[in-house]
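Hi R.,

Here's the chain you asked about this morning:
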Amino acid sequence: MNGLTFAHPVWLWGAVLIVPLAALRLWAHLRAGGRLPGLVSPRLAHRLINGATQSRRWTIFCLQAVALLGIFAALARPQLGFEEIESETEARNLLIAIDTSRSMLSDDLPPNRLSRTRLAAKDIVLSLPDDRIGLIAFAGKPFLQAPLTVDHEAILEAIDQLDTEIIPRGGTNLSAAVNLALETVEEAKLGPSALVLFSDGEALEGLDEVENVRERAEKAGLKLLAVGVGTSGGSIIPAVNEDGEPIPGEFVKDENGQVVRTRLTPESLQALAAKGGVYFHLGGSASLTEVVSRIREHLAATREEAGTQRRPIERFLWPLSVAFGLLVLSHLAPLFWLKPVRKSASPSPARRSVAALILFLFSLVPGQLPAESVPGVAAKATEAMEATERALAEESSPRKRSFLQMQIGAQAYRAGNFEKAAEAFGSALAEGRGRYDSTALYNLGNTLFRRGETALTPRQNPDEVQSLTGNAGIETTIRDWEGAIEHFESSLALEPGNQMAAHNLDYVKQRLEELKKQQEQQNQQQEDQKEKEQQKQEDQKDQQD
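And here is the predicted structure, written out as C-alpha cells:
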C-alpha cells in the first residue's frame, strides 16, 4: 500500500482548536466594534485610526490558522511511498561463562582473578548495547545465572553478585560449562552464537570430554572464545570465611597441610579452542582493554546477515514548509498594508515581547542551528543588544528596565553569548517584581542548557552526547544542565500549563542522564589505563630485580 499514512495521527485532532480560536477572534471583533462608536465619531474613524481593516485582520488570522493546521499535520508525520534499504542486524547471541572456583581468588592479578574477570565481562556487556547476552557461572558444576536477554542491567547486576560461594560444588569443569551453553543455544533455536569462557584453566574434571564438546560446538555454530585468567607464576589462595570474605593471614592448604599454589594452566583452554575457536590471555603484559578489544573483533563474525527492509518515506517537511511560509507571510503582510505614523516610531512593547517569546519558543528543538552558524545573524543580534544596552543605561523605571533586560537576554542568546544572556535574564528576574518571573526562569533554563553545550566538543551534533576534552568540561556541562532543570521546574511551578517548559525539562533530563553515563564510562577507561600503567611499572621492577 503506497497511499498517504500518518505515523502519529492523533496530532490531527489539533485541527479542532481552530474552532474555539475562530470563535474567540469573532468575539474580540464584535466587542471592539461595539466600543468604537463611544470613542470615535463614525464619520472620522477611517481618518483617525491607523491599522488594518477588519477584512485584512481576518486574512491574517486565516493565514495563521492554516499555518497551525500545517504544524499539526507535520507533527502527525505524514508518510507517502516506501524506500528499500539494506540493513544489517547488530544483534549477537553471546554467552559469558565465568569460573567461580576458589583458585579464582588468587591475587596474581590484583586485586584477584575473579575481580579482574568481572571487570572484563562488564566491559564486554557495556560495549555491546544491542546484543542478547546470557551469563553462566561454573565450578565443579555449571549454572545459568541469566538467560539470553537484552536487559543488560540485569546481566551487569548478576556479574557483580558472582563469588566463589555461588556454586556449592568445588573444582573446575570446563566441558560442563560448554555443554550448558550448547543446551541454552539449542533450546532457544538461535543462529550463530558465541561463548566467552573465563577460567584459570585448572580443570579438575571433564578433560576427557573436551574434544567431544568442541565438535558439538562447531556443529551448532557456537564460536568458543577461551580466556586464560592468571599468570604462569601464580600465587597462593587466600582462605575465606562463611561470607566469602578473605581471612587475613590464612591460606588454602592441601591434605598434607601444605599451602596450595595455583597457576594459570592454558593447555586445557587452548585445547577447547583448538578448532575454530580463539584463546586469549588475560594477565601479564596483556591489559584488560586490549583483551576486551580483541574479543570484540572476533565476536563481529557472529553478526547475522544483511537484509532488505521497506521504510516509509517521511513527508513532514511538506506541511511544515507551508506552515512556515504562511507564518512569514502573515507577519510581512502588515508591512504592505499599514501606514506608519512616523518613520522613527519604534515597535510597541507588546510586539517586542512577542518577538522575544518567539525566540525561545523552539529553543531546544533537536536539530536547530545555533545562531553563530547562520551568516550575519550573530552580528545583527549583537548590534541590537548594544543598542538596547544604551537604552537601558538611560532608563530609570524598574518596569521598563526589567523589560529591556529581557530584550538584552534574548538578543545575547541569539548572538550565542550565553554568559551575557544568563546575566540579563537574572537581572530581569531581580528587577521585574514578579512581572516576568515565569518567562525569565524559562529563558534562564534554555540559556544554561545552551551554555552547557558549549563545553562539549565544538562543531558536533548537539543531539548526541559527544566525547569531551576532559572531566572538567563534563563537570561544567553537568552543573549548567542541572541548573537548567531547576529553572524549568521553577517556571512550571509558577505556570503549570507551560508545555514548552515541560518539554524542555524532559529533554534536558534525558541529555543529562546520557552525559552522566558517558562520564562513568570515561572514568572506567581512566581506571583501566591506570591499572595498565601500574602493571607495566610492576613488570619493569620485576625485570630489574
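One quick note: Residues 348-536 form a domain with the Serine Threonine Protein Phosphatase 5, Tetratricopeptide repeat fold (CATH 1.25.40.10).

Cheers,
M.
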